[in-house]
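STRUCTURE:
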């Protein structure tokens, strides 16, 4: 059951990231930051989906560096959730939520490169 649940959660992660990306690009291209815009809710749904997937995915393994990379990957979802807070905060500016979005994206990019490299290194080391 846990393996099937992990597969479902891993399939939902790109959907959450896609929602965040759509909601980030929309106010930058089409119209400025307006109160009550629909993109806030899309961003919030993506951030919440990503956070829940990261929290409930079970990771196994003994390698300390790989576990730390997975934990760091969870922090990207937390940064996106903080960005969501600043979207709904009455005195929040566009730069506030955009800064947390960029920080979460930077962590996401770093871990998406380093986790496969570490897994490949561990597989080669076992052979």
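SEQUENCE:
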């Amino acid at each position: 059951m846990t393996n099937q649940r992990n597969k479902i959660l891993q399939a939902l992660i790109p959907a959450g990231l896609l929602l965040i990306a759509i909601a980030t690009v929309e106010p930058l291209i089409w119209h400025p930051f307006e109160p009550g815009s629909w993109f806030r809710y899309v961003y919030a749904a993506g951030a919440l989906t990503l956070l829940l997937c990261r929290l409930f995915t079970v990771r196994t393994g003994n390698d300390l560096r790989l576990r730390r990379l997975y934990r760091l990957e969870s922090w990207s979802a937390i940064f996106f959730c903080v960005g969501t807070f600043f979207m709904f905060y009455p005195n929040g500016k566009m730069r506030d939520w955009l800064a947390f979005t960029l920080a979460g994206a930077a962590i996401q990019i770093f871990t998406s490169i380093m986790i496969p490299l570490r897994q490949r290194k561990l597989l080669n080391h076992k052979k």
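REMARK: The chain has a mean pLDDT of 89.
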